[in-house]
Amino acid sequence: MALRLSVQTQFGVPAPEAYARITNFFGTKDNIQVQVAIHYDQAAREQNLATVREDAHYISISDLKGDLIPAIYGVLKTMSQYEGATDC
Description:
Elements: E1 3-8, E2 14-27, E3 31-39, H1 42-46, E4 53-60, H2 68-76, E5 86-87
Antiparallel strand pairs: 1-2, 1-5, 2-3, 3-4
């Protein structure tokens, strides 16, 4: 599971088919920190190329409903950084 979205890379180059995936999460009974790696596109991810951006977010456990990983992606899609993201 991952998200497809359009982002600007750190160099100002557009990545219209960026591929964002959760790489790690950890936390407490109240909050988790989620780390997200964003690749230029899915092919860059499959070739294990460098990321164009890496993000970390704190999510309240109370915001997670259902299965954990899909729920995390659901919360990410509500954040402005992932506006317009779709599941892939």
